[in-house]
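User: For documentation purposes, I need each entry recorded in a consistent format: the amino acid sequence on its own, followed directly by the corresponding structure tokens. There are two entries in this batch. Please keep commentary to a minimum and don't merge the entries.

Assistant: Recorded as requested. Entry 1:
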Amino acid sequence: MTDTAVLEIALRTMIITAKLATPILAVSLAIGVGVSLIQTVTQVQEFTLTFVPKIAGVGIVVLITGRWMLQELVVFTHQMFSLVPQLVGSGG
């Protein structure tokens, strides 16, 4: 296995991780900012108020995008397994 192959695998892994985490992180961030604005306006500073909306939002996002996420992860896994013979053959 060459250093180029390792870097390629690492790059692919980071890209798929970013693709899969982006919807969840974006919704969590948006809900957090929205609840923080509401807390600031109403002057209610309760830390647990952000927890339930974030959990509900993340759950909805996973329900909506879960199939796409699973498909992307399966495609990535197939690509990685298809690279194994090339990596084993070139490592000798």
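Entry 2:
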Amino acid sequence: MPAEKATALVLRTTDWSETSRIATLWTREFGKIRVLAKGGRRLKSNFENALDLLTLCGIVFLRKSPGSLDLLTEAQVTRRFPRLRNDLSALYAAYYVAELLADLTEEDDPHPALFDAALAALDRLGAPLTNGAAPPDAAWCVMRFEMAFLQELGYSPALEACAACGGPADGRRLWFSGEAGGVLCPACQAGRRDRRPLSPAARDLLRALRPDAADGTGAAWRPEVRREVRQTLGHYFTWLLGRRPRLLPYLGS
């Protein structure tokens, strides 16, 4: 079986035996894959420390039959995100990005644009600061990534019209439903148990977070609007995942 090469982000690792480990990787070329790294727990191995969580690496692996682990034969560090070691809010945000990729994507389903969005978010969160620059807005980076994630996987929320009936949703009273997949008009909100109020300002911010919108800054938005959007996106991802994301309580707004 020919070897495959890929660029991979380490999302999760689990000890398999005294000497080996299993790694969940998000690759640009193949999407999410699970690999067995034989000898990966040894202090001196072919992988060195390339399998550290949130490390970008170049890998070589052998594909196995569907449902079984691929075999990792080589991994070399391409990039690290050093500031994550010193900034707790950035670290939690990066862990959240990894959690969404690990738990809300299918194996062997590549999305190069989503890989690029994840890498861009980690670059912003983890790049060292220079010349006295201010640290990045971790919450803003996460919300931008979430909207890119939703768009790429086909879950982009309906914001222009009612997600249930397709009618106008331009009034001052709006609701958001994860089950419906977006905003609801007054006539449709009554039958949705998971609905939550959504202010016009929060809808505007959700629009501004779309990948095709200008990459602005979170400072332009009032804190209460950011909190509402953080809660709305958390509500939506909780519905998609079927449980509350583990890192969600550690994210700021």
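Summary note for entry 2:
Residues 3-79 form a domain with the OB fold (Dihydrolipoamide Acetyltransferase, E2P) fold (CATH 2.40.50.140).
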